[in-house]
Structure formats: structure tokens, C-alpha cells
Write a structure and sequence with these properties.
Distance between the termini: 23 Å
Bound molecules: adenosine-5'-diphosphate, magnesium ion
Number of strands: 10
Structural class: alpha/beta
Shape: globular
CATH topology: Rossmann fold
CATH superfamily: P-loop containing nucleotide triphosphate hydrolases
Number of helices: 11
CATH class: Alpha Beta
Strand order of the largest sheet: 3-4-2-5-1-8-9-10
Largest sheet: 8 strands, mixed
Length: about 290
């Protein structure tokens, strides 16, 4: 399964979309909330059910102890969003000031995410937040750059509005260069369209010269459920939103599989201690939280 990172030029629905894809996926899925500006799922969709003692920030200290400690901590800080453990969440930072501590942790975390994808069969979604640039490069504290470099696919989330496209046009160039020079290749880049505004998928693809790998309806009611949790809206299970999200996960998986066949940059095998995350996960079983 692939590791797919979602980003935006400006807040427009990255977290909502990442959550929707994770929950709609037919495959086991894992959402890593790695937005350096702070996570919103803990206080939102999870309605505060998970405390600050749990989640991404604690992996920075574990990484300083060593790869074995990081592998154990990763498994221990995953929150089961369902009883069976098919939907896992790594809750994000509670304070943007914590982001600096993660700078040296991202490369090892990226390896663990690839172990989860390649060996445990999870489609891993990374909420990487808003793209911040510094001299035309990904900002090293304000973006989880190593996660983007190593992702199988990087999806720029855009709305079909003039404003969203205008900002995305400025972001996609540096992102393409970055993936080309430091990452997994420029063709790892794709678009996820939120169908708000007049522009259709083919126009968005043409304007940004990148493929639209999926589209989600503009649906404030369902989006609010992903933002705040609580009771799902009527007909949620069969809603166009969820259907589109599921189709998008399939398109993403197909695109990643096509790329894997042509892959010029095969993933290096993970550090065996980091791969220990699998054993820890099995020991933990399906218990919640
Ligand atoms: N598909 C959608 N339809 C309607 N509103 C949406 C959709 N996706 C996101 N939103 C709304 O847009 C706002 C920003 O969404 P969020 O996912 O938090 O963005 P980001 O993570 O990019 O900052 C929220 O109010 C959210 O409910
Ligand atoms: Mg967000």
C-alpha cells in the first residue's frame, strides 16, 4: 500500500479530506497527523477523547532514545478509530511550538510509515498541512519535508475557485522542484479537488499541470462532521461524500501502483529496529487507544 501525503497552499480542506479518505478506505488505513502548525482532529473529530499525553509529539523523545524505542512508541501512540484496528490515527501536535522538536525525527518516522504501508498493508495518509517555503525550498520546521520527499504520492488539495488556484499555482512549482531534486520524483505529485467553485477537474489539471487523482464534493454538512465529530449526518454511510472518498482512495492506490512499477527510487529497506513496530503492533492487538 502507498504512503500518501496531503498538503495545501492555504488551508482549504487537507485535514477533512485526509480523515475522509482514511475512514472511507476499503483497505486498512492509518492517518498520521503531521501538520507542524498543530493537529485539529484530537479536539475536533475525536471530541477531546485523546489527551495531550498521546500522539506525535511524544515520538520526538523516543527517537532520541533510539530506533527501537521509536518503533515501540509509534505503535503505542496509535489510536484505534474502530474496534478492529483497521483505522489507526497518530494524533498530531497540541502546540505548534512542538514542531521544532520533530525536525530530526521525520526521517525515521517516514521509514516507519513505509514499514506500515509495505509490510503491514496500511494505506498511510499523512496530513502534512500547509506548504511553507523558504528561499523556494520546503521550510524545514514549518513543513515535515522528509515525509513529503519519501511519500509515494503527494497530493496538493485545491478548491475549484479562482483564489485557491491562484495560490496553488505558486506552490506547485517549488513542490515539483523539491520532489524532483530531493524526493521521490516530480511525478509523485497529484491533485485532490474539492468541488467548490466554477473550475472542473480538467481545468484544474490544466491550470496546475498535474493530474487530478480524486475529487470530493463541497458538502459543508459532512465536512462539519469530520471537523467536530458527534453524530454523523443523515445518510452518511451512503453519502456522495463517502462514495467519492472511497473512489479517490482507489484512484490513489492505482496511481501509486503504476508508479511503483516504473519506480526509479526504490525504498531502501527499513532499519530492522524500526521494523519492530510490526511486532509491537501485533502484541498490542485490537485494543482501543
Ligand atoms: N469537502 C468539503 N466541503 C465543504 N467544506 C469543507 C470541505 N472540506 C473542508 N471543508 C471545510 O473547510 C474548512 C477547512 O477545512 P480543514 O480540513 O480544517 O482544512 P485544512 O486542514 O486545510 O486547514 C473547515 O471549515 C471544513 O469544514
Ligand atoms: Mg488541517
Amino acid at each position: 500500500m502507498p504512503v500518501t501525503a496531503l498538503v495545501s497552499a492555504k488551508s482549504c480542506g487537507v485535514t477533512t479530506s485526509a480523515l475522509a479518505l482514511t475512514l472511507a478506505s476499503k483497505r486498512p488505513s492509518l492517518l498520521a497527523e503531521c501538520d507542524p502548525a498543530g493537529g485539529t482532529i484530537r479536539a475536533g473529530f475525536l471530541e477531546g477523547e485523546v489527551g495531550a499525553g498521546f500522539g506525535l509529539y511524544h515520538l520526538a523523545a523516543a527517537e532520541r532514545t533510539g530506533p527501537d524505542a521509536l518503533a515501540h512508541a509509534f505503535a503505542n501512540h496509535l489510536w484505534n478509530m474502530d474496534e478492529a484496528g483497521h483505522r489507526q490515527l497518530l494524533p498530531g501536535l497540541t502546540d505548534p511550538a512542538q514542531a521544532a522538536a520533530l525536525g530530526r525525527t521525520w526521517p525515521a518516522l517516514s521509514e516507519i510509515m513505509h514499514v506500515m504501508a509495505d509490510d503491514a498493508g496500511y494505506h498511510v495518509y499523512i496530513d502534512a498541512g500547509r506548504i511553507a517555503l523558504e528561499s523556494g525550498r520546503l521550510h524545514t520546521t514549518l513543513t515535515p519535508a522528509p515525509l513529503l520527499h519519501q511519500a509515494d504520492l503527494v497530493l496538493l488539495v485545491v478548491r475549484g475557485t479562482e483564489q485557491s488556484l491562484a495560490l496553488a499555482k505558486h506552490t506547485i512549482g517549488p513542490l515539483r522542484t523539491e520532489m524532483d531534486e530531493r524526493g521521490n520524483g516530480a511525478d509523485a505529485l497529484g491533485l485532490l479537488l474539492i468541488e467548490d467553485g466554477p473550475y472542473r477537474a480538467h481545468q484544474v489539471a490544466e491550470a496546475l499541470t498535474a493530474p487530478v487523482l480524486g475529487a470530493l464534493p463541497f458538502d459543508p454538512g459532512t465536512a462539519e462532521f469530520f471537523a467536530k465529530g458527534g453524530r454523523p449526518p443523515r445518510g452518511y454511510g451512503r453519502s456522495p461524500f463517502l462514495r467519492h472518498a472511497r473512489t479517490t482512495t482507489e484512484h490513489i492506490e492505482a496511481a501509486a501502483a503504476r508508479r511503483a512499477i516504473q519506480q526509479q527510487y526504490p525504498h531502501k529497506p527499513a532499519n530492522p529496529q524500526l521494523a519492530g513496530v510490526l511486532q509491537r503492533l501485533n502484541e498490542r492487538g485490537g485494543q482501543r487507544g
